[in-house]
Amino acid sequence: MASVDTTRNNRQSDKPVGAAVGQPSAGKVVSGTRKPEMAGDLSREWDQRMRDILEMSGLWNRDAKAPTYDELRPYGHRETSGFPVYKNLETRLLNAVDHPDPEIAHLMATCAAYSYSDPRTLSMIMARMGLEDNQVRMIQTSVDAMLISSTAYLIQSRNGKVGILCYRGTDPLNFVNWLSNIDVEPERIGYQISDPCATVHAGVYRNVRATRYEVMDALRHACERRAIRAMGNDGGSQPNGSSQSEGGYSADPSRLDGNMEALYITGHSMGGAMAALMGVMIRHERKYREAFADRLRAVYTYGQPMIGDPSFAEACETDEFLRENVIRYVYDSDVVPHLPSTASGPFRHFGREFHYRVPHLRNSVVNLLTYPRCASQSRKGHWETRKHPTPQMAGLLGIPMSAMAFIARKFEATRSLPAVYSVDDHLPQHYISALTPPGVQNEFGD
């Protein structure tokens, strides 16, 4: 990828997003005799340092507009009983009050899974799910030396009233992603959330901050009835600072039917951790709370690792929204929700947890009795509400155990054996399958 000019980062730091970005917020972390102003100065110094590093490495945007239904279905009826997957999906997203909602949970799992692809593919699959004529903006930056590999997508509905912020998770082929996962040194957040001593996962916090100014700028456009997609930039890469318009890119001047009323945040794996932390930031960082907190409807995460210590989790539980509307899904023996392990220090989940249980022994017996007449039922299970969150892995022994379980799932003779921890159960397609409602074939609407 060619080197690019990213001067937008410096310009954007002086622009308001609900409130001035550089403005100290009420509730900065105060430690010992440090004054709030000093904590704010340190936070601004770190943000400026981050922007300078990103300027050298490059912050890239890519946009896409969904194909029409005529383009998606050239050889059949434009709409059928199964296509799109959900009718009136935008209305459902706007009006949903109780979470988790089964259709929304399936939609968010699909969005999180396809965030590992490119903007055009994500836009296409969201159209198939029911968000016709959606627009997608991808915001991506990578700084290997800082263990930063951050990718965020913002999906905007046709009339502009619904926004979905989705963070890409850990790329299995990206070594920096894995290093940022194990960068678990505790770090204090730049604002106070009940407990001034609460700390978070340093790697997750750094990656969220790496793209947050661009993310917030795109959300601001959505709140102003403006298209998030740059005019004429359909699927191409674009460095920040490459145009002269406000916001750093040539935004489509046309106004949408409405401003963003409902915002959802989602992600799988480390993307889920980033989604949860962004939800905390929107709820508790003043400059974002004033602009977006009332629009935030729910945070759905899949296979999410823990992001903070017990003090941080307890502080989040005091916020009714974070306690009730941060929805975490765990598939069977997925190893990642048990991380970081106790060897890295104390961590704890917050929010509501739903666990998919697979009765492996029973399924094995059923498979033997019905073979070869029926397809394998080895992954058939049910969702349970957990009263207590998934605990940390004790030590590091579970890591090689999860790798062994991954290999065991590849052989028919050992596929149905139960596992304590499993890497295979972390794969995003399992979350989509387990959350697909009865009567829905798949995410393609076939």
Keywords, please?
two-stranded antiparallel ribbon, alpha/beta, 15 helices, Rossmann fold, disordered N terminus, 14 strands, 446 residues, 10-stranded mixed sheet
Describe how the helices and strands are arranged.
Layout: H1 8-12, E1 16-17, E2 19-20, H2 36-57, E3 59-65, H3 69-72, H4 89-95, H5 102-114, H6 119-129, E4 135-143, E5 148-156, E6 162-167, H7 175-182, E7 186-188, E8 199-201, H8 202-223, E9 237-239, E10 262-268, H9 270-284, H10 286-292, E11 296-302, H11 310-317, H12 320-324, E12 326-331, E13 352-357, H13 360-370, E14 382-386, H14 398-408, H15 428-435
Parallel strand pairs: 6-10, 10-11, 11-12, 12-13
Antiparallel strand pairs: 1-2, 3-4, 3-9, 4-5, 5-6, 7-8, 13-14
Helix pairs in contact: 5-6, 5-15, 7-8, 8-9, 9-10
The tally of domains stands at: 1
CATH architecture: 3-Layer(aba) Sandwich
Biggest sheet statistics: 10 strands, mixed
Query: Would you tell me the structural class of the helices and strands?
Result: alpha/beta
The number of distinct β-strands equals 14
Low-pLDDT windows of residues? 1-39, 241-250
Rough outline = globular
Q: Which CATH first-tier class would you pick?
A: Alpha Beta
Helix tally equals 15
